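Lab notebook, bench 4. Still working through the backlog of constructs that have no structural model yet. Next entry is a single chain of 323 residues. Request: give me the structure tokens for it.
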Amino acid sequence: MISGRLIIRLLAFVALVAVIAGLFWTQNAAFLSEGNIRALMRHMSVQGLAALGLTFVIVVRQFDLSFPGVASLGAMTLGWLIASGMPLSVAVCGGLAVGIAFGLVNGVAVARLGLPDIVTTIATGGLAIGFSYFYSNGTSISQNFFMSGILDLNDRKILGLDMPFAILMAAAIVGFVVLHASRFGRGFYATGENRTSARFSGIPTRTLIVAAFAICGMMACLSITLLVASSGAANVTAGNQLLMPAFAAVYLGAALFGRPSVGATLAGTLMMSTMLNGFTLLAIPYYYSDAIVSTVLIAAIALFDPRVSGLFRTLVAKKDKTA
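Model written out:
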């Protein structure tokens, strides 16, 4: 059953998105056009897949800074396999395998070896970027793309939905079932809330942390597959645009809905994509939009931090007592 607090949060979120959309629409009526809405959904699909994978890592209270670099390596692996004449299914699976492999390395290093997550993932991300240059010395790969069928991942529709958005919705459904409707998913949350208690309760905390990093790496590479399909080429900088929007979406969603979840991440992604799309439509320079995304990320982290939220609740309680 949906709680009253969740309904209030949902209504507040819808109102906030409506206000943001209304502001952009007053500046440019094309913001609410069908073509722009579809463009927004495509952008949301790329960012949303990366953010969904990151959600699992955040739920277990870890950080992954490697997924942009891993995504770039996945893109170049995908492009190289397509250029080599491999079937599209093999090329896509090869790209996803890169993400899973690096995710497993991250997970084992953090959960089994006890290495710090931030330092470890920075190192593996840099390693992935280095490997991505091996395929073509850093130049983009587009050979055989038009014949391979990869462009159909961007152009086709499923049940009236553009393929990228349909893939995002399918991934969100699977993620929701895993994280919110299974014992496996409850283990993720228990691991993040109190790892020691979870371990003594019989929950395989280390295995779940490894799984969270593997999911993050795989989803980053799935995300970059859609980006490659839309651009028609694979390049070593493909993953650079994933880091800030993904973190901002996860933390913004967690701040809006009280904790990180699949639904909260989708909500945060929608809000971030709406703002970025509006900035692009109004021709606002990228450095302004990057600054705003960074500000939103800092604000979301502050709101999600239990110390900040606890302080806020204390101040509200004191105010109520003195009133």
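Notes after review: The chain has 15 helices and two strands. The two ends are 34 Å apart (CA to CA). Flag for follow-up if needed.
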